[in-house]
Amino acid sequence: MLRKILLAAALTLAAAPAASAATTTAVAVTNVNLRAGPSTLYPAVTVVPTGAAITTFGCVSGYSWCDIGFGPYRGWVAASYVQVVYRGAPVVLTAPLAPAVGISIVSFNRAYWDRYYVAYPWYGR
Fold first, then answer.
1. Choosing a second label site near 118 at 20 to 30 A (CA), which of 45, 53, 85, 108?
2. For residue 92, which of 28, 21, 23, 37 has the smallest C-alpha distance?
């Protein structure tokens, strides 16, 4: 029985989204939908207003969509709506810039969905 519990715990941790080494403070460049996944096909969780402080946890490979936190919310926005500070100046996040400001690659998977969206009415879809 203990072996099954340990195996289940190990599988859960392995399925969890990769944790970035560090988070990056950023702002939203315009009002943008915070999505439940890295695509406009996912439902909107909330709207992040222009200039709002966000925390960037990482981006998918290619840096097109980023996993962010905004207040109590967690979700995804297109990288083109994320502004970071690079060499003392605010710049829109791009694929070449992301590693230079410490943004790593993370994945989106079922464990992420189950962790952050179970309380939403569209969760089961």
1. 53
2. 28
